Amino acid sequence: MTRETPSRATDRFDDDDYPAYTMGRAAEMIGSTPAFLRAVGEARLIVPLRSEGGHRRYSRYQLRIAARARELVDQGTPIEAACRIVILEDQLEEAQRLNEELRRTTSDPSRPTGP
Predict the structure, then answer these.
(1) Residues 48-106: pLDDT tens digits?
(2) Nearest-CA neighbor of 67 among 98, 18, 26, 97?
(3) CATH code at position 80
(4) Domain HTH merR-type: where (predicted)?
């Protein structure tokens, strides 16, 4: 067994993308069931990584996304629609961010234009 240096192992605690949570723990953390996590995986909202033994592992980032879908499902939205809504919300947020960034760069008179 290899032992990691403490700083490398500690870095994983801060990594939102590190697949640290088993399906049971992940479901518990977002207040759902393992079946719900399988369903959002089937809808391709999140794609869990697999352990060497083939078990699903989830990151904190994935759990935040799944929790957003769970809130919509709890309000009566079908799971497929909830997953699509979360995807579209994220796409809209990214488009608005890019649009704002483009506005800032094109409206800045001190910024050189063209070659």
Answers:
(1) 999 889 999 999 999 999 999 999 999 999 999 999 999 999 999 999 999 999 999 98
(2) 26
(3) 1.10.1660.10
(4) 20-88
